[in-house]
Design a protein that fits this description.
Layout lengths: L2 E10 L3 H4 L8 H4 L6 E2 L11 E4 L9 E9 L4 E8 L3 E13 L2 E12 L2 H9 L2 H21 L4
Antiparallel strand pairs: 1-7, 2-3, 3-4, 4-5, 5-6, 6-7
């Protein structure tokens, strides 16, 4: 079993209450090209134990089942499990902190645990440089979204 974890901070010139909701299954549809999910809960209101499924996005080998582990909108914190059976489990955390009225610091952490050969091979390639570029793309896409009001 292989493991890896990386964390990165960046700042976005937006109020925390505007930015934080974008780190949700529904919110990501606004700024991440190609992002979509299967809503199996019958609501878009996020809460702990909320479950959704993706099939083609964010390091997924085939199908990923996402489970909201912790959700505290008042402190602008979300943590999710992402389970790809037989491949890997991810623990993804996004925490937003108000720096100024219109400036928010975002810290994103991805931890992966391999469940098999394919997951372990993915983890071997999930290097600090890869992660730096991956989260740099989040920052770029969020800035494009706020500049234009639309997905890149």
């Amino acid at each position: 079993m292989s493991r890896v974890a990386h964390s990165k901070k960046f700042r976005i010139n937006q109020p925390v209450d505007i930015l934080f909701p974008l780190f949700s299954a529904e919110g990501e549809k606004l700024w991440v090209p190609g992002w979509d999910y299967e809503n199996i809960m019958g609501t878009t209101k996020l809460h702990e134990d909320y479950i959704f499924v993706t099939r083609t996005h964010d390091h997924v080998a085939s199908e990923a089942v996402w489970l909201v582990k912790k959700y505290d909108p008042e402190s602008h914190f979300i943590q999710l499990y992402k389970v790809e059976p037989g491949d890997k489990v991810g623990i993804i955390t996004a925490a937003c902190t108000r720096v100024e009225e219109s400036l928010t610091e975002v810290e994103v952490t991805y931890q992966y645990i391999g469940l098999g050969d394919a997951g372990n091979a993915f983890i071997d390639g999930f290097t600090p440089d890869f992660y730096e570029n991956f989260i740099g793309e989040w920052e770029r896409l969020l800035n494009i979204y706020f500049a234009s009001g639309t997905c890149a």
